[in-house]
Write a structure and sequence with these properties.
The structure holds 2 protein chains of 2 kinds. By secondary structure, chain A is of the alpha+beta class. Chain A has one domain (about 1-65): Alpha-Beta Plaits. Chain A has helices at about 15-20, 45-55, and strands at about 1-5, 25, 30-35, 60-65. In chain A, the strands form 2 sheets. A two-stranded antiparallel ribbon of chain A has the order 1-4. In chain A, a hairpin with a 5-residue loop joins strand 2 (about 25) and strand 3 (about 30-35). By secondary structure, chain B is of the alpha+beta class. Chain B has one domain (about 10-440): Orthogonal Bundle (Cytochrome p450), CATH 1.10.630. In chain B, a hairpin with a 2-residue loop joins strand 7 (about 260) and strand 8. The longest helix of chain B is centred in the middle third of the chain and has 32 residues, at about 270-300. The chains are: A alpha+beta, B alpha+beta. The structure holds protoporphyrin IX containing FE and iron/sulfur cluster (SF4). Iron/sulfur cluster (SF4) binds near residues 11, 15 and 55 of chain A.
Chain lengths: ~70, ~450
């Protein structure tokens, strides 16, 4: 699983940082910053889904890997 | 949409000459819309004669939205206020909030006066950034954003907690099962005024005075539009505080505002005072209402109250569910140019009400939308708006709401409604009188 953040859509609602601080930080303007790159470790999958499900601007996308 | 219009991230912006407040071109050219409430009387059918200022609206708003949705009406209409449209579904509210070309923020409060073409020229408006449109909006907003970023707000938690505890202490001797207090008047309404007063660094001994000014101003606006007395007093008070801060700069919000620069030029007193007034107007009634509605809910749902006491971590989700279910803020737009909105012939200068609270109850967006689920996991609510005007104070508002609920529910582990709740009238929805009987007091 991978997480993708669309910074143009992000309006700084700050829901992701509250729910998944392991994955998201906020900058000085309150905009989200993605902390991880590439394949997410298994134990963070739940948090990633939670953050995506609560972003009011639909700025967070989860890309599930299709296993060969 | 270009990047400039949709993002608030630190990028270069096109410079637009700012005009805050009055301008020589005649900022006060307001049109009086052809509307007299007495010609209309109480609302019969909200689909064709919508009026959010009808006293029956706020107490019953969720039922009104439900009825409109179920009658297949995504956009209600009214001839009141010179013509007003009211999108009711999440999709239509979302679409208008994002469409800054066809809908302007020049005026965000529906009233009998509306800014004419010569007044408050777009894209700046009278109270930036809330009345601004792109591309200017982003510039005004970026001046304030750093002061309200999460990491600037988090450190206020202990002080807000002490304030709430002090308000609870001040209620005096409570006899469980007998004592009745007003959770809106004695508790909720004091919290946001005090917090913003402290952040601005206004003297503590002035708190009472300052609170009175603000409430005078807000209430006068509701009662007799056009009266500026309360505003003048508040304006003078703020200018005195600004002068004092210029002399003795310190680490507070007022000093921060005096140091922000527009294209290398520090803001003058008038601009700083304007920003302070906006923070007061946007931050006080709203937060007071959110706290009041949440306590109103808990008075009737002891099971949710108990869950918060047993499992404090559930607050992360409960907080957002209070905001979704009881979103206090409905904004407005004006139609910028004639357009056909899903079959509605919208005309330039028509009002458009933007009921984020109704969007939050849309069953197409939320499962069991009219049910309060204390640990709702998926909750993309729109209580703080959608798009570029996302509430600048949302991190502060959340912190105040969370701490206010936590302290009240801990101090009074059981309480119930005791008499009639009186709801506000107008675009901000929340209890104004909230008598509750305390059934248990923590030792
Ligand atoms: C629960 C409490 C609050 C709620 C529900 C709320 C809601 C909102 C909403 C819906 C908007 C969007 C306006 C629009 O789309 O036109 C907004 C904007 C704004 N709010 Fe809040 N608000 C709250 C508390 C606060 C506080 C505490 C402050 C500051 C002290 C504040 C300052 C602002 C400002 C400055 C804007 C304008 C942002 C812009 O236009 O870019 N609000 N608020
Ligand atoms: S929840 Fe969405 S809009 Fe809010 S900060 Fe995170 S990514 Fe941005």
């Amino acid at each position: 699983m991978r997480v993708h953040l669309d910074s143009e859509k992000c309006q700084g609602h700050n829901r992701c940082y509250a729910l998944a601080p392991e994955l998201f930080d906020v900058d000085d303007f309150g905009q989200a910053v993605l902390l991880v790159e590439g394949e997410l470790p298994e134990e963070l999958h739940g948090k990633a889904r939670l953050a995506a499900a609560n972003c009011p601007e639909y700025a967070i996308k989860i890309v599930e890997e299709t296993r060969p | 949409m270009s990047v400039d219009e949709t993002t608030t991230s630190p990028e270069p912006f096109e410079y637009v000459e700012p005009i805050f407040g009055d301008s020589p071109e005649g900022t006060h050219v307001w049109q009086r819309v052809p509307y007299n409430a007495d010609d209309y009387g109480p609302v019969g059918d909200f689909a064709t004669d919508f009026d959010h200022a009808d006293p029956a609206y706020n107490p019953n708003a969720p039922a009104v939205w439900k009825q409109l949705r179920e009658s297949g009406c995504p956009v209600a209409h009214s001839d009141r206020y010179g013509g007003m449209w009211v999108p009711i579904t999440h999709d239509t509210v979302n679409e208008i909030a994002y469409d800054t070309e066809n809908f302007t923020s020049r005026a965000v409060v529906v009233s009998v006066g509306r800014p004419g073409d010569l007044s408050l020229p777009a894209p700046i408006g009278g109270a930036p950034p809330i009345t601004s449109d792109p591309p200017f909006h982003n510039m005004a907003r970026r001046l304030l954003l750093p002061a309200f970023a999460p990491k600037k707000i988090e450190p206020w938690e202990p002080e807000i907690r002490l304030l709430c505890q002090r308000l609870l202490d001040d209620m005096g001797e409570i006899t469980p099962g007998e004592s009745i207090i007003d959770a809106a008047v004695q508790y909720a309404q004091h919290i946001p005024v005090n917090v913003i007063g402290r952040m601005l660094g206004f003297p503590e001994q002035d708190e009472e005075l300052f609170r009175k000014f603000v409430h005078d101003v807000l209430e006068r606006i509701a009662e007799e539009p056009g009266s500026r007395d309360g505003m003048d007093d508040l304006g003078k008070y703020i200018l005195t505080q600004i002068a004092e801060h210029r002399e003795n700069p310190r680490d507070d919000l007022t000093s921060y505002l005096l140091n922000v620069e527009i294209e290398g030029t520090p803001v003058d007193d008038e601009i700083a005072a304007g920003m302070i007034v906006l923070l007061l107007v946007a931050g006080i009634d709203t937060t007071w209402s959110a706290i009041g509605s949440s306590l109103w809910h808990l008075a009737q749902h002891p099971e949710d109250h108990q869950r918060l006491l047993d499992d404090p971590d559930v607050m992360t989700f409960a907080l957002e569910e209070f905001l979704r279910s009881y979103a206090p803020v409905t904004m407005a737009r004006m139609v910028a140019k004639d357009n056909d909105f899903h079959g509605c012939p919208m005309k330039k200068d028509d009002w458009v009400l933007l009921p984020f609270p109704a969007a939050n109850r849309d069953p197409h967006q939320f499962e069991d939308a009219d049910t309060f689920i204390v640990d709702r996991q998926e909750n993309r609510h729109a209580a703080f708006g959608l798009g570029i005007h996302r509430c600048l104070g949302s991190n502060l508002a959340r912190l105040e709401l969370k701490v206010a609920i936590e302290e009240f529910t801990k101090r009074f582990p059981r309480y119930e409604l005791a008499g009639d709740t009186r709801w506000s009238v107008g675009q901000i929805r929340g209890p104004r009188d909230l008598p509750v009987r305390i059934l248990e007091v923590a030792d």
